[in-house]
Design goal:
By secondary structure, this protein is an alpha/beta fold. Helices cover about 30% and strands about 20% of the residues.
Length: about 260
């Protein structure tokens, strides 16, 4: 059976877990504003895109489930658990505030617990094949605690009926690509470790899932040209790249 092909439907919605670094370093200047300001804009744009994709007769359908966790010195569950996209749309996207240190291990520990509880809830109806959850992690990788790699690897090995959990990393830093990009719409994505010059970028790349082909095709329908073999790793150093990276959650099949 092919992996990552189960459509998101009202009876088998796709779970998207946003995990956002909100440590103090995210207050640093970044282009015309700060990193956290750019994150808030991109997050709202991502939710609008999901809402647009799931509209039927002007009404958003519950084809997506959403969780939003932010982490600094502590982890905050911004939505108090998993909620359906229409419910999230009604309450609105919270504005994230950056402060404290970067406890990435605590953030991914919360993700692991959330996914374990979600998987346990699915066992009540094991006959339904569910889309594999997607974890969308955004950080500037200024880790002030221990290396989160072991726990991320455990999450990558968590199995669902449609395939293992997908983990995407969006890394907000400059000058990580070996070859400069003139047009992000034509960019093929990060295909191998040697495409990156930054050590933190290389570590996150190695902790990122391969980009499933059905996701790649759906993302490319927005005008991008990601190549087969790219990883779910994206620089987040321009608004255009943030839009591309946040297009990934909308890459699942719908029905």
């Amino acid at each position: 059976m092919d992996l990552y092909t189960q459509p998101a439907t009202t009876s088998t919605p796709a779970l998207i877990v946003y995990l956002v670094d909100t440590s103090d370093s995210m207050n640093q200047r970044y282009g015309p504003g700060t990193k956290i300001e750019l994150v808030n804009i991109a997050l709202r744009d991502s939710i609008r895109r999901l809402m647009s994709r799931s509209m039927r007769d002007g009404v958003p359908q519950p084809q997506y489930l959403v969780a939003l966790l932010s982490y600094n010195t502590v982890v905050t569950d911004e939505l108090n658990g998993i909620c359906s996209l229409p419910t999230f749309g009604q309450t609105g996207v919270p504005t994230l505030i950056a402060r404290g240190e970067t406890d990435t291990i605590a953030g991914f520990t919360a993700v692991e617990e959330l996914l374990e509880n979600y998987n346990a809830s699915l066992q009540r109806n094991p006959s339904l094949r569910r889309p594999a959850p997607l974890v969308c992690h955004l950080t500037d990788a200024n880790f002030t605690m221990d290396d989160p790699s072991p726990i991320v690897k455990r999450i990558l090995q968590m199995q669902f009926s449609d395939g293992p959990v997908l983990v995407e990393h969006i890394y907000m830093a400059e000058h990580m690509l070996r070859q400069p990009v003139q047009d992000w719409l034509e960019w093929e994505g990060v295909l191998k470790l040697n495409d990156l010059t930054d050590g933190n970028a290389q570590r996150l790349f190695q902790l990122a899932s391969p980009l499933p082909d059905v996701y790649r095709q759906n993302i490319n329908n927005y005008g991008y040209h990601l190549r087969k073999g790219a990883r779910l790793f994206f620089p987040g150093n321009t608004p255009e790249l943030m839009k591309l990276a946040f297009a990934v959650p909308a890459g699942s099949q719908l029905r």
